[in-house]
Amino acid sequence: MSRPPVVAIIGQGSPQDRAIAVACAEAGANIALGTVEKSTAQDYAMNSIANEIWNIGPDQFVCQMDAGDAAEVASFAAQVSDRFGHCDLLVCNNDQPESAPLDELSQDEWDITIRANLTGPFLAAHAFGRLMERDRGGHVLLVAHERPEADAAYCAAKAGLEGLARAMTRTWSPRGVEVETLPVAGDDAALAATVAARLQAILAAH
Prior knowledge:
- By secondary structure, this protein is an alpha/beta fold.
- The chain has helices at residues 15-26, 40-56, 70-84, 107-135, 152-172, 188-205, and strands spanning 6-11, 30-35, 60-63, 89-92, 138-145, 177-184.
- 54% of the residues lie in helices and 17% in strands.
């Protein structure tokens, strides 16, 4: 491959996000980091990760955005395209668990949780999938955390990722874009190693 690989990561600046970004950067990928929420804490955490990537060597940038806003997610995808020319791998690590008792789960709480954990990944996969389809193909990973203690809204969102991945792959696979869920129950290093291995497999296939 003549050009460096590009990985976009949407998350909250968590230790998992850091481990994923570092593993991909060490594999030679340029890194684009997008926040789940427009918050000072997430912006600071993502910029801390970007600084670590800078020390490793690859190019990187941070986009502070609301991952539940279609226009802002589309803008992030456009920034990735403008800066790097393509995107090989998108990692959606949207993870905002809640544990409201079923009898007390309000519609507002349901809507907030679904927006964060299902709508956000859908918008990202849709925006980046179109970018990948136009450019040269690519891969989308929807991280699905195993949280048996989470409430009904969170569990519904994570189950919804499976159907989303199947539907998107059915449409885009013939055009070179694959979408899959990545169940996660292990530690940060294991997740990062799995994502990095996916990246290497993607690059080897081109």
